[in-house]
Amino acid sequence: MSQHTKAEVESIIEKAFATRQEGNELLKAGELGPALLKYHAVLLALRGLDSSLSRLYPAEPPRFSAIEEPRIQEIVDDKDEEKEGETKDEGSQGEVTAASKIEEVRTAIKNTYLNSAAIYIKQERWKRALEAAQSAKKLDEDNVKAKFREAQARIGLGEINTGKKMLEELQKSNPDSAITAALNKLSIDEKAREAKATAQFKGMFNRKKGDESKNGDRAQDETASSAGSAAGKGKGVADAEHKGAASTSPVTAEATNQTQA
C-alpha cells in the first residue's frame, strides 16, 4: 500500500474541509439528508490520517505556556463553534507541526460528528445519534455539546433517567438555555405520560366494573329463568296428579259398591 505524499495529504484535508462547509450550509438550509452525505464523505476522508501527518510534518518543538482556564462552552444547535484552518500550535517560525495539524483534523472530525448527531436527533434516529455523540466525545471527553447530544439520544432511546441525570449535571456545570429547554420538555413529556397512564388505568377499571355488572345481571336472569322453569315443572306434576286422581275415582266407587253387595 503506497503512502500519501505531503501534497496529497494537504489536498485531502483541503477538499474535506470544503465538503464540510458545504454540509454546514445544507444543514442550515434544513437539507438534512444531503448534509449527512457530505459529512459521511468528510469522515471517510479524514479518519486515519494521523499516521501520515506524524510522518510528514515535523515534531512540535518544546515550549512553555501559561495554564489556560477552562472556558464555559455554549450549546448552539446547527452552528460550528470551531473554525478549521486555524492552527493554534505552531513552531517558533510559524511552521505547522504534526501536533497542530493532527489537532486541526481531529477538530474537524469532532465537529462533523456533532453535526451528524444533531441531524440524527432531528430525524429521531436515536441509536445513530448516540453513536455520533459518543464518537465526538472520544475526541474531546469534556465537550459539552457532545454530552448534551448524548443525553438527548439516550432519552430518545428510552433511557430517560440516565439522560435526565446527564442534563442536570450539565446544567450545574454549564448553565445553558438549550439544556433548560430540554429539561422543561422532559418534564412536560413525563406529565403527559403519567396522565396517559392514569387514563388507561381508569379505562381498564371502568371496563372491568362494567363487565362485572353485566355478569351479575346475566346471573340474575339465569336464576330467574331457572326458578320459572322449576315452578312450571312443579305445576305440571300437580296437574298430572290431579288428573290421575280424577280418572281413577269411578273405578274406586265401583269397587266399593261391589264390596258392599
From TrEMBL:
Its EC number is 5.2.1.8. SUPFAM superfamilies: TPR-like. Residues 75-98, 198-261 are annotated as: Disordered. InterPro entries: FKBP4/5/8-like (IPR050754), TPR-like_helical_dom_sf (IPR011990), TPR_rpt (IPR019734). TPR repeats lie at residues 110-143. PROSITE patterns: TPR. One of its GO terms (molecular function) is peptidyl-prolyl cis-trans isomerase activity. Keywords: Isomerase, Rotamase, TPR repeat. Residues 208-221 have a biased composition (Basic and acidic residues). PANTHER family: PEPTIDYLPROLYL ISOMERASE. This is peptidylprolyl isomerase. It comes from Rhodotorula paludigena. The lineage of its organism: Eukaryota, Fungi, Dikarya, Basidiomycota, Pucciniomycotina.
